[in-house]
Amino acid sequence: MARIRDLATALMTVAAVLAPMAPGKVLAATTYDVISDVRIPMSDGVLLDSDEYVPTTGCPCPTILVQTPYRKSGAGVSEGNTIFPSNGYAMIVADVRGTGSSEGMWDSFGAREQQDSVALVQRAASRPFSNGVVGLSGVSYSAINQFLTVEQPGTQAVKAIFPIVPMSDAYRDVTWAGGNTDFGFIPLWLGLVNGLALIPAQDALSEPRIALNAESQHALDVAEFAGPALLDATLGGYEMMLPSALQTFPEQAYDGPFYRLRSPIRNISRVTVPTFIVGGTYDLFQRGEPILFRGLKLSTARKKLMIGPWYHTSAGNGLTADDGSNPVYDTKGNLLPSLNNLQLAWFDRWLKGISNGIDAFPAVETYYLGAGKWAPDTKYLSATPGSGTSLYAGSLAPAADGGNTTVTLPWIPLDGTCSRSTTQWTAGLVSGIATCENDSRPSELLATTFTTPPFTAPYAISGPIDATIWISSTAADTQVIATLSDVAPDGASSQITAGTLVASLRALTVTACGAVVADCSLYANGQLIEPWHPYTHASQSALTPGVPTRLEIEIFPTSAVIEPGHSLRLTIATGDFPHETSTLSTETSSLGVDTLYLGAGYPSSIYLGTVSPPPAS
Asked: Is residue 11 scored above 80 in pLDDT?
């Protein structure tokens, strides 16, 4: 398996960073009271439910705000992290509109919810226990809305945020996979939020009228938001054939106003407060976390990125314990603290003004710090036989073949089930259960593979990856999944990262990224390394059957080391189920046989950002 490394391999000694705190240890010395079910009125009369955690001494004090759809307490995720009130911070945990015990209709980061976030910040700053200074914390949904909150005017009280596994782009990061529906996570997630919302409000006995109103709204919301959104997305292009009255969310299968409103990257330039982002190599938002970091116009003292070998539900696992026990060190010998300790140090610095050294914590890029310089490497898909037992087993070579070769690629949309993809795109919930999490060979049987010879020295890859694939089809459309894997000496093929593209949505935005990081493609020395596809109905263009067509496939960024004796494999397939499924319009347009092209005339290849020399072991 590729040795996926925490990108913080060059962190300074944490004992100095967290001074005057004990190294890697949460203080947890302050007692606190909990005031449950504090109802907060919004400007339209909707009441949001919240819990307040107030230290018994030391306040007025900075206040941490958490906004969650997973229930503030009781049954559910319960995101109130008591490290904050235990360490001298007040905390407010609120159920967002239409979820948990709050009234209203939920529409997932919609305009009204974003307006609510401003009111919640102002409420947090004005409570008697608050000194007017606010920090935002939380995981996943509660990380995403940290960005959406501070991007709104009227949130000046927020002085720092600590988003753990946040999303950058609602369309590209998770809801859609190269133009296909993300079927592995989205239905599961919608079911979770709506299921938790149907549990009776926590103050149902004391406030029966409010609770009944909230529960009736939550029940109606399934039919008004989640149901129609899923239906319109599933229909794909066919949704436009419905009468306009039935098009609840027009063009839901394409990127547009719905997703842009909910995408923090669209207004990332408005984020001016210190921001510490935590991401994961196998996170749902693997793609977007480095882009968010890149888009922040902050000094290196005020923005940080830490990415570990984590799924969405396991962020922070394996780091040093809160109490400092079981210390974990990076390859430089530096201690890696728990996420709780990092949060406390971050907020102590920016909310309390304590000079604890956290601002000197390295701003971690999407490559190995201190490991050397970028050394771009392009490998070409070659007809030279390679290892593997797939339908076609070619090799990855340093140059394109002199002649041209075609490879038949059958359309098998249900391929991919037996792979790490299933674990990643169910948020890590089946980790340790899925038998193919660390060996994708069963899925590779129905695909084509291209494998390097075993490496004789460590080969490090880091950053964005682009696959240029030449393909044709007997149909008007198809979808291509490109997967990178580490092949062990015993043949086990462990997935590192992957990318997808629906061929009809292949249009490429050639504008180079600069100060703006959306609606642009990323280049390095003139080489495309992170393609941006518009994914709009207007940009969609059918394939001409039988004509070779170039696809630029965005493979999500990663960092990995392929050890000596191991090989790097690129797998080209037409399915990645249950992670992704075609829309109805794509499905009916893809009933054909695909042809993959190799060689000088159609140089299918993959661009890799390598690090030379690789990080020390």
From this structure: no
